[in-house]
Design a protein that fits this description.
This protein is α+β, with helices and mostly antiparallel strands. Helix 1 packs antiparallel against helix 3, helix 2 crosses helix 4 and helix 8 runs antiparallel to helix 9. The termini are far apart. The chain binds (3R)-3-hydroxy-3-methyl-5-(phosphonooxy)pentanoic acid.
Length: 312
Amino acid sequence: MMNIPSSSFTEVVASAPGKTILFGEHAVVYGEPGIAIPVPTLQAHVTIRSGNPSTPTTVSAPAVGLSSCDTAQPESEPIRALLELLSARYGLPLMTGHTIRVDSDLPVAAGLGSGAAVSVALIRAVNVAYALKLSDQTVSDLAFEIEKIHHGTPSGIDNSVIAFNRPILFVKGEEIRTIQPRTHLPVLIADTNIRASTAIVVGDVRKGYPANAPLIRAIGDISRAAVRAIETGDLPIIGALMNANQTLLREINVSCQEIDELVAAALQAGALGAKLTGAGRGGNVIALLPDENPETIANVRNAFQQAGATIR
Ligand code: PMV
């Protein structure tokens, strides 16, 4: 018989950051390296309260489009699916007697890892509430199961960078390598406010495969070069590599006019490099600044805003 852990807690709150992919999105799906960093200014928060064990667990997640949900949600609903997974894997009574609230600063379907951040925050909350002592790798692996619901065939880069909460070099199927930037990377993230489905964009790239394989490999080469540039703190090279990466992303047809306009506006305003981040066809653009002078930041920020973007 399974020994069901008891819930001696009344309330637990846990958080997880958003993420941005600096290099290698889409190519990571084909085993090429990618580089991602957490975005600590954007967070998902999960609060779990324990209550009457004879009532179904309720979930309120307005920030991700779930105003209220309980165990009557379809099994494919990601939060419900994660609760089922954790209940089954660790013998927890999560489907009854809990009130769960999700709050998030992260825009959904915008390439900043909203789904993975909510999953990691929820896993961390359960980890604390039931003293499971899960490692970062286990947290990442559990979140990856839910990424499959969000994205179909995810590489695992989102759940990895968010669960490990540090800059990473990601290669599918390999151990996570931590990257140590020599200097702080001054970046600005700007949202096109266009939402795109990662699963659809990834599916379209796959339709172009293997014809686009040389472009995918070239993106991998850029990521390999970028590791050295980041670890030696060479901002102009990092910027040039971002621009080269963006050119290739355009060639595999995952950019769009709004992204191209934001990239051009940032470069015109003095950014060293700019590219889409995440699946593309909308979502966010990331720009690398030459320094953190207030004037430099204001110039790029204004250029983004004049081109219609929201600063994240
Ligand atoms: O979910 P997004 O938009 O952050 O995109 C993830 C990055 C992709 O490489 C496009 C997909 C993947 O699974 O790696």
